[in-house]
Amino acid sequence: MTIAEIKKNAETKMGQSIDALKNNLSRIRTGRPSPQLLDVIQVDYYGSMVPLSQVANVSLLDARTLSVQPWEKSMAAKVEKAIRESDLGLNPASLGDLIRVPMPPMSEERRKEMTKLARNEGEASKIAVRNLRRDANEAVKRLVKDKEASEDDQKRSEAEIQKLTDKHIADVDALVASKEQEILAV
Fold first, then answer.
1. DSSP E strand boundaries for 16-165
2. CA 143 to chain centre
3. Fold classified for 3-27+107-184
4. Cα gap 181→186, rounded to integer Å
5. How confident is the model over 72-124, as pLDDT tens digits?
6. For 17, which DSSP code?
7. Which residues pair with 51 in a beta bridge?
8. Which residue numbers delimit the Ribosome recycling factor domain (predicted)?
9. For the whole model, what pTM was predicted?
10. CATH level 2 (architecture), domain 35-102
11. In 3D, which of 120, 89, 110 has the Cα closest to residue 184?
12. Would you say 98 and 67 are in contact if contact means Cβ atoms under 8 Å apart?
């Protein structure tokens, strides 16, 4: 493996860490409801647990309500039960084959808990990015030890890997700050 391949691999994996952070942050509840909020719910579908999005259409009904429309009428009761029993603290109401999920307003204390959760997700992503930096630098050191690269190449590549790391850490900070703003907006 060459130094260029090591750097490219590290950059790709760091990008994947950022994508994972975006996905995790989209599941954190803000003042406004989001259909992604229900993505974590698993529903019993003929004996196997599947994500809610695979058995129903989830959309925004109005500023405070999500609507869940199961594709099979027989699934409505199971979907409603899964939403009620989730740890999201939601109380769905069934209207025939449409399930309305009103989102209760968040208290100030709950908003602060959510910002802490967002910060923890950000910190986990930063740790992942730093671990990738360490792995890339160790791979470059192995190349130097095996005499496949010079020490000058090592110094240059470590500086470039550090720049990559700094860029991705700044992206993490920006994403977390943006999510905090979204959570604290009343």
1. 42-45, 48-51, 56-62, 65-70, 93-95, 98-102
2. 35
3. Topoisomerase I; Chain A, domain 4 (1.10.132)
4. 10
5. 888 888 888 888 887 777 888 888 888 888 887 777 888 888 889 889 999 99
6. H
7. 42
8. 21-184
9. 0.74
10. 2-Layer Sandwich (3.30)
11. 110
12. yes
Contact 44, 52 (CB under 8 A): no
- Terminal C-alpha separation, the chain: 51
Residue that has been written with the tokens 């699934």 in this structure: 75
- E runs forming strands in the chain: 42-45, 48-51, 56-62, 65-70, 93-95, 98-102
Q: What is the CA radius of gyration of the chain?
A: 22
CB neighbourhood size of 10 (10 A): 25
Q: Six-digit token pair at 149?
A: 């690269």
d(CA 73, CA 54): 14
Residue spans per domain, the chain: 3-27+107-184, 35-102
Cβ within 8 Å of residue 50, ≥6 positions away: 42, 43
Q: In the Cβ-directed half-sphere of 76, how many Cα atoms lie within 13 Å?
A: 12
User: Would the CATH topology of 3-27+107-184 be identical to that of 35-102?
Assistant: no
